[in-house]
Input
Amino acid sequence: MQISGAQMVIEALIAENVNTVFGYPGGAIMNVYDEIYKQDGFEHILTRHEQAAIHAAEGYSKVTGKVGVAMITSGPGFTNAVTGLADAYMDSIPMVVISGQVPMSLIGTDGFQEIDAVGISRSCTKHNYLVTDAKDLPRVLKEAFYIASSGRPGPVHVDIPKDVTAQIEEFVYPETVSIPTYKPHTKGNKRQIKKAIDAIASAKRPLFYLGGGIINSNAADEVRKLVKMTGIPAVETFMARGTLHHEDPLLISMLGMHGSYAANMAMSETDMVIALGARFDDRVTGKLSEFAKHAGVIHVDIDPASISKLVNADYPIVGDIKGVVLEMIELAKEKIDAESYTPWLETVEHFDKLHPLQYFEDTDRLKPQWCIERVGELLGDDANISTDVGQHQMWTAQFYPFSRPRQFISSGGLGTMGFGFPAALGVKRGAMDKVSINFTGDGSILMNIQELMTAVEKKLPVINIILNNNYLGMVRQWQTLFYDKRHAETDLSVQPDFVMLAQSFGGVGYVVRTKDEFDAALKDAIEKNVVALIDVKVERLENVLPMVPSGGSLFNMMLLEQKKES
Amino acid sequence: MADERRVISVIVANEASVLSRIAGLFSARGYNVVSLTVAPIPDTEYSRFTIVTKGSVRVIEQITKQLHKLIPVLRVSETEEMIEKEMVMVKFPITENLSDISVLSNAYNGKIANVGTDTIVVMVADEPKRVEHFLTAIKRYHPIEIVRGGTVAVER
Output
């Protein structure tokens, strides 16, 4: 079949079972958009900013497990998308991002809307391509989807000059991929797995350290089984929330900078860390030399570069979590006695009783944590939860009762303010049967507020719950604690009227000051089934606690005290 | 941990921008490059990079892993069992003691490569350490220009 490069893009997306593309047109990508106009194989969702298109595709990918697809034009279209690419790269989200480029004859001439896109995306993608001949397009697109979704997933960027999308060539979409230089290692070494199980069996205080790789590997069911049958307690990273059900008796909580006292103490006291798809991020470990100081380390990861990068692994296992955990389950049946960890579980329980994750309703204003717990009570499993970045994000990770993987969608590694709302649009599109809640802050929500238009146009009724403390709360918290209360440029007293703002786009808005108002607003927003901004006036000076100060040891936490901050 | 000098040999697919992927990896992650050479491997679709780097054992391990993670990289080898050679060319004023220079370059596996009206050029190809010695030895002959080729290496 002789077709244009632009038509090849459409055919490839349909062949890859893509049913939603997020994007924004422009000069260099117009040939492709012309073909989008003519096709009905997938839906295109026009966001109102390229950054939002990438975040929406990320949200869609995270909730569905499929490759997220976004399309943008050259120059500023591409540079606006870079934050999204970097975000997807840091959080290992499978994505294919297609950008237009100026025609080949103009490349290198500082042409209109020209930028060295692959030069920029090189450091924030898993791989990228500049396609200089339409003959290469079928192979490149096939490889892009394969690379994005295999091994440790990540975003792949394909940059296509305008004349290449116009070029007519024979099109046969390859059925298989053959990249001699890329063979991701997926099967864990049996001998190593056996050694690891022996090490666990001889440990007295083993601890599962569950990471986001489990969710990427769709291995939560297997991990739940392994945890249950071994009777070993588990901590989750921020990225792994929902791996275990919140009611799982062996789930301690999240660990790290804002992890629970019990989770961080368990990590400090364990004698055998079993890391599954976690990467020992600095927000998790605190001071490295003090991290899990008494413990041997088993580290299962599909990315060999993650193993022994920061913490030396005594039992490194390179492979896909799911397969490795299945083998662990078989071996554990004989070798691990779930009863033997009772004293260790008692210790953990003691930690949890000593300083449980909690907050006190000790001021007149609503507590942000209450709002999160309340949504959990009212919606629980019926909602998918996304967040922006800041205090509200940490409270959500701490207090929402997650019950399944892919329920929690947030920007972990890059910490991108403005992620939550557009991501929630993608989440809603990927899971129309669930309520899509975005917990956000009064700072974050303004960083992609234009997406109210997308939400209204495409009928994606995301409910944004703004935990409004009139501050850039997390920065304010650090200023309070470490900068002698000099709140430089973090006071956001001047704000839009969020109700009118929502209404002006065709959405609904609410101001909430009490618990009753909160319930009523949430109920009404769900009934109205249209994008909503719920402006919740919360306690201004609430801090996220516990807190391990940056660079401090996990066991050295600032803890909640029952008194008001002066 | 003390820094160690290591030679890393990397075989990569011949394709556009592979040099910038490798150079970009070193700069983005703050790794040292002492020298870097690259040339196609005959009768294949691959090229070989020879990178001399310095770092702690952990950093060297990360470098090899991160290199291997790049999609176009076929193989990364990093062993102490490498035969290393480096070529250097040096230009001298013709007025210097030419027989001394000739004897020295012979001693370091080299020779006079070109004689012009005002200058002569000698070339030497030897182990990187011996090249250093050569460059120290010829200092007194007022070299005008020194061009080092970077280390190339092959496993024993």
